[in-house]
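Protein Entry — a single chain follows
Next Lines — sequence and tokenised fold
***
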Amino acid sequence: MAEAQWYVVHTYSGYENKVKANIEKTIENRKLQDQILKVSVPLQDVIETKNGVKKRVQKKMFPGYVLLNMVMNDDTWYVVRNTRGVTGFVGPGSKPVPLTEQEMKNMGITGEALNVDFIEGETVTVISGAWVNTQGVIKAVNAAKQTLIISVDMFGRETPVELGFNEVKVTN
């Protein structure tokens, strides 16, 4: 059997979640779980300021697109292509082109499983960069991007700082 790869599907703007739900329902109904492995609408946390109030919200990383980890064949192509809200696969003409390893890394998608040794609430010491020798508490772990958000004390206030896994070590 062919190996599953990541493909990008173009959708009507604002229909990403509907397309994801429709494809997942079709996978269930047609028993295609072994061919279409994952349907994803990548989100990112963004801090928005409205009326002077900062609020953390999730926004779509790629509005108008849905990512699929699937085995490409006539059946899966047909199912995805004929889902309501899908305008087509990304690629020349009607031929879908899978994402390369580098494109997947740039988007924070990795094929290999990561073993994350960091836990929220743990105290860490920064070992490189502008915050070197600063201690902070882990507030969030993003395994896909290999980053942490730690809270450091700056001028008597807690300040969130995003750092890579390789820039910190756990304080004993």
Notes: The longest strand covers residues 43-50. The longest helix spans residues 16-30. Residues 5-106 form a domain with the Alpha-Beta Plaits fold (CATH 3.30.70.940). The chain has two domains: 5-106, 123-170.
